[in-house]
Each structure stands twice: as structure tokens, then as C-alpha cells.
Specification:
Two copies of one chain form a homodimer.
Chain A (H helix, E strand, L loop, with lengths): L1 H7 L3 H8 L7 H14 L5 H8 L4 E6 L5 H16 L3 E6 L5 H13 L4 E5 L17 E5 L8 E5 L1 H14 L6 E4 L5 H16 L8 E2 L4 H9 L7 E4 L2 H13 L9 E6 L12 E4 L2 H18 L5 E5 L2 E3 L14
Parallel strand pairs in A: 1-2, 1-3, 3-4, 4-5, 5-11, 6-7, 6-8, 8-9, 9-10
Antiparallel strand pairs in A: 10-12
Helix pairs in contact in A: 1-2, 1-3, 5-11, 7-8, 9-10
The first copy, chain A, binds a DNA duplex (30 and 30 nucleotides) through helix 2 and helix 4.
Protein name (chains A, B): LacI family transcriptional regulator
Keywords (chains A, B): DNA-binding, Transcription, Transcription regulation
GO molecular function, one term (chains A, B): transcription cis-regulatory region binding
DNA sequence: GTCGGAAATGTTTGCGTAAACATGTGTGCC
DNA sequence: GGCACACATGTTTACGCAAACATTTCCGAC
């Protein structure tokens, strides 16, 4: 900066004024400074700026991994909206979901230059970790039941699951089976709970729950366990539903003629499954947007209270569901 | 830091020494300082550190989006390995692939506190943009033909495509059709070129190329165009292959009995397609790892020359390919 | 012409850290 | 006992920037 000032024949303060587009610099001077900047290839040093302002214009994101479609789409939306607000994103992935790893990630984040943190992680691992964050750092949590302690943004999992199960009941199926995600996952539990509640409210029998780990492969294995009596199944995500379709296909059971299948997420591929999957649409981009919004609000206006902001879902009916035809196999 | 020093009854310099684990501090003093740090919840300010050192310990990543499986897995690997080396990741997504957007991303990145940049973007958009980066910032490029000007890390696209096409020819198919990715994509072009070359070398006719945009939906549309004479098709990625499977299924053509299909990427879901997809396995994690390695090498040892580092691929044979049976439909 | 005041520009200062240099403190050796 | 030297700790300074305050310049009104 000093070099630019010297070359332009002005003080460094004037350079600073030009760099920040402040008023009070006469046109001719501004021109000269800009020319000098170009000539020397001057870039403002963001570290010095941060030091001066006490702000970093950076948001941290802590998550388990980008491998799930939901996470990666949420992160993408976060990055996009943060960029639009002049913020950069710093990513810290946590390897295995252990207390130690999570704590380590928060500690690292605490040492990093971030103004706020978005946490995409199960809450039970979170409690021990947040104290590792410095006091000034704000937090928004995605996809967990931390609503009593932190601001939370989440998809309306329960309502989505309700829509799925009701759709199947309305088609006449006597009851609906469920293949859930991993027990540690809060979304998985909420979807399972909503499924159970709808069945109970409708006075239908509640079949035993199948389990997967969100992967198509695990859905395939769980699908093989589905008994012949099953005519309708609500699967906790689209990828497991893909596995279920394969399992049913291998067993010679036709979808949707013999068995109706509903997924959750509405990933891009779901419309190309065999048959195209009826599923619950989840608006990941909106979740990401609201996270950034809530966090920036906190940063500028001070900590908002806890509470949960739910993004609505809706059912997308495609070819994998059909009316009940009175029996399992024809 | 001054507060800690006061509380511990030492100078700030001693605090600094303790914070950085430097020698020359007697045990009792160190204890006192550590205690004071804990009491005050002291955190070193990374902005000041960066200012002092001229290093940020941050790597930038510029990409189009996280929606493709490949990108998100590569980014995940980059983040993981960078974290292991004590570096954080700053993400800048580029919306639409226009010259302006790319330039904007590079400009923003130039103003950000990064020591190096990993670019996951088509090269023809890259040329106009890199000058926007400050001189001291190192660059590694993924998935492009920039090998003559930048260090490039990439999957061995050509070899993967060759393996796919040869596999189909070895099964006895007279020739192999191809559904390519978008023409702007360099990987798409390389896969298409390798496909054409193998056919020409084998003296087989080269059918017209189908086109998609990587999405399952576009694969479906391209799949509907496949003529009855087609008995083998190499699709440029797994998701489009999923669409092709659906198109063939709708037309009553069985896979692999009537038509053999090979994909590219080996995404997690591919083994659960109907039928499980034969595809070219791509090691995204390794690509990410090598990127970080190359970039850190540059940062510590000065700019390495251009050149391309190819990560090998291998064919995974599953259920979507079968020997040629002498005719298109039985 | 002189004076007031607004606008343009310059100077000083401090953000938190750590290197470089300066000072103190004790130890062992002759 | 005095001296040198190693080691622990303190003081000064600079990193790049911009707010706060200081100075200069120029204009119009009287």
C-alpha cells in the first residue's frame, strides 16, 4: 500500500480511501491512485483488514461429510448465499462421528478466522463441543433437535413423513412398512416417529422397522427382509429406496403393481429410477439459504434466541405408488 | 494476549512463546501462563498471526457446484487432507459457467486470505481468469487440459473410456454407441475421443454420438434415441446411464440380454441400479489428496512446473453387460 | 483583501502477534 | 571471589490497514 501511495504521490490513507470507495477524494487523485494500483498489482491484504475490523467475513461449516446428497446440496446453497453477502465459507469435515473428532473440529474452528459457524451434525455430539468455540462466535445448527438451545434450521421431516404415509394409506394399503436410516440420525428418528404416529392414529398395525445406513446397498439388504405381506413401504431416503426397488425386482415383486414404494429427499436421479420414484421433496437450497440468513442476522444484530425454523416439504407422486389391489402378490 | 500476560504476571512475549510451544520458558512460568489462558478463555487471533507471518493456512477451492458426485467427493477429500495438514478450505462456487462469473470468483479469491487455489473448472474459462489472482498464490487445476500451463491432477479419463469400450468389444459386440456429456466439458470430450479412437483402431463403424448434460433425465432422453441396431452403449457417466436403463426398459429392451450398458464414475448407487451397472471406477478421493499434496508442495518449495498427474481408473464389471448374441432383439 | 468554512489530503495511532534485540539472573569455573 | 556464559524473560518494533484527528487548500461572502 505504501508503494502505491509513493507511486501515486499521495499518502497511504488516500490509497485506503480509494480502495474502499470512500467519498472525499477528488477525481484526478483517484485516477492516479487507481493507475498506481494497477501498475503495482496491488491487492488489499485481508488479514490486515480483519485485524483492523475484528471481522473476517468468513463463515465456518462443520459437517460429517459431503457424500450425502443432502449435505452437499445444503453446503452448496450455503456457499452461494454466503458469497452473495460477501462472505466466504470455510469447511471442516469431521471424519468419524466420535466425541473426540467433533471436539477437535470445533477447537480448530475456534482458532480459525470465522465470524459464525453452521453445524450440520447430530446434536448429541454437539453439546460437549460448542464450549470449544470462542464466545464471540455465533452458531446455527442444521438437522437436529437442538432447538431449545440453538437456532436451528431444518426441513420439516415429520410433515414430509406424514405426507408419505398418508398417501400410501389413501391408496388403500392396509398398513405401511418403514425402512429407517441409522438410529443415531435425528432425521431418521423423526421420520420413523412420524410414520409410527400416522399409523397409530389411523388405527393400523405398526410393522417392525427395517434399518439402513442411507446407502442404496443397505436399502437393498433391508428390502430383501420385507415380508410377502408388505404392499407399501416408506423408505427414509431415495438412495435406500433405490436399493429396495432392486431387492423387490430380484424377488419378482412388481413396483407399483405388487408393492408401492415412497422415498424421501427427491434427489435428481429419483425421477429416473425404475419406476420413477414417488418421494418427499426436500428443499436443501432453502435450508442453506436460511442458515446463512439466520447467521448473518445474529452477527449483525446479536444472538437471536433458540428456536427451530422449518422448511416445508411436499410429496412428489411418480410411478412407484399405486392403489392397493386387495392382496400382496396377484 | 495482554490480559493473559497481566494475569500471569509475565510479558506478552512470554505468552506468545507458550502459545507456540517454543523452548526457553521455565515449567513454572508456563503453567502460570496456561492457567491464565484457560481462565480468560484466550484464543490466538488468526488474523494477526496471518498478518505477522504472511501465511494464512488456507486453501481456496473454485468450482461450479457440488451437485455432481465427483465434485463433492473430490472436495470432501481435499478438505480432509487439507485439515490433516493444518489447512482450512475456503469454497467459492461459480454459478453459471460464464466468463464473468469465473473472473469474479477469481477476483474474490484473490482478495481472500488463501495461500493457494485449487480450480475445478473447465480450462477454456480459466485463461482469462487466473491473472486476477495475486502473484504469490499458487494454483492446481483439476479435470482439464491445462497441463501445459498449470499443474493438473486428473483421473485418467481416456484410459477409463478405453477399458469400457474394449470390454464391450471383447464381449463380441459389433460396435459401441456412445452418449457423451456436454460438449463444453473437457472430461466429456476426452471420454468421447477415447471411445472413437478405440473403435477406429478396431476397424469398427463409429455411430453418431448422443449428448446429455450429465443428468439422469438427459440420459433418459438420449437413451430413447438409441436405434434398435444398438447392442452396446458406453455412457459418459453413471447418472446418465441410469436414465438410459430407464429408456431401454420403457422400450421393452432388456439389459443386458438385448443391450449392454457401461457407465463412468462408479458412484455408490451404481451397484444398486437395475441391473447393477458395469462402470469405470474413478478414485475421487485420490484426486483430492494429490491436489492438496501438489499445492502444499508448491507453497513450501516454490512453483512446480506444469504437467499432468493422472490417477488410474479401472473397470468394475457388474450386471449390465453381457456377450453379444448375434442380433439386436431376439 | 480578509475571513470562515468546507472539502481534500496528510499524520498518528492501534488492531494482536512474534521476531529481533535487550536485559536480567543464576550457574559453574578458574 | 570474580568472571563468563547460558538461559529465562522483558522491550521494541513491524506486519497492512483504516479510524480519528490534524493540516492544508480553495472558495465565496463580506
Amino acid at each position: 500500500m505504501a508503494d502505491v501511495a509513493k507511486l501515486a504521490g499521495v499518502s497511504s490513507q488516500t490509497v485506503s480511501r480509494v480502495a474502499n470507495g470512500q467519498a472525499g477524494v477528488v477525481e484526478s487523485t483517484r485516477e492516479q491512485v487507481l493507475a498506481a494500483m494497477r501498475e503495482l498489482g496491488y491487492r488489499p491484504n485481508s488479514a490486515a483488514r480483519s485485524l483492523r475490523y475484528g471481522r473476517f467475513n468468513t463463515l465456518g461449516v462443520i459437517l460429517f461429510g459431503l457424500s450425502s446428497t443432502g449435505n452437499s446440496r445444503t453446503v452448496e446453497a450455503i456457499a452461494t448465499h454466503a458469497a452473495a453477502e460477501g462472505y466466504a465459507i470455510t469447511l471442516i469435515p469431521v471424519g468419524a462421528p466420535t466425541q473426540d473428532n467433533v471436539l477437535g473440529a470445533f477447537t480448530r474452528m475456534g482458532e480459525l478466522a470465522v465470524d459464525g459457524v453452521i453445524v450440520i451434525i447430530e446434536v448429541h455430539l454437539l453439546d460437549a463441543a460448542t464450549p470449544a468455540l470462542p464466545p464471540g462466535v455465533h452458531v446455527v445448527v442444521v438437522d437436529s433437535d437442538a432447538g431449545e438451545r440453538y437456532p436451528v434450521v431444518d426441513t420439516d421431516q415429520a410433515d414430509g413423513a406424514r405426507q408419505a404415509v398418508r398417501h400410501l394409506l389413501e391408496l388403500g394399503h392396509p398398513t405401511v412398512w418403514h425402512i429407517a436410516g441409522p438410529a443415531e440420525s435425528y432425521s431418521a428418528e423423526r421420520r420413523a416417529l412420524a410414520w409410527r404416529t400416522v399409523l397409530e392414529e389411523a388405527g393400523r398395525p405398526v410393522p417392525p422397522v427395517g434399518r439402513g445406513d442411507w446407502s442404496a446397498e443397505s436399502g437393498y439388504r433391508a428390502g430383501l427382509e420385507l415380508p410377502p405381506a408388505c404392499t407399501a413401504v416408506f423408505v427414509a431416503n431415495d438412495q435406500m429406496a433405490l436399493g429396495v426397488l432392486r431387492a423387490l425386482n430380484e424377488q419378482g415383486r412388481r413396483v407399483p403393481a405388487d408393492v408401492s414404494v415412497v422415498g424421501f429427499d427427491d434427489i435428481a436421479d429419483a425421477s429416473s429410477y425404475l419406476p420413477p420414484l414417488t418421494t418427499v421433496h426436500q428443499d436443501f437450497a432453502e435450508v442453506g439459504r436460511r442458515c446463512v440468513e439466520a447467521l448473518l442476522e445474529q452477527i449483525s444484530a446479536g444472538p437471536g434466541g433458540p428456536g427451530t425454523d422449518l422448511v416445508p416439504t411436499h410429496l412428489v407422486v411418480r410411478g412407484s405408488t399405486a392403489p392397493y389391489r386387495g392382496g400382496a402378490a396377484p
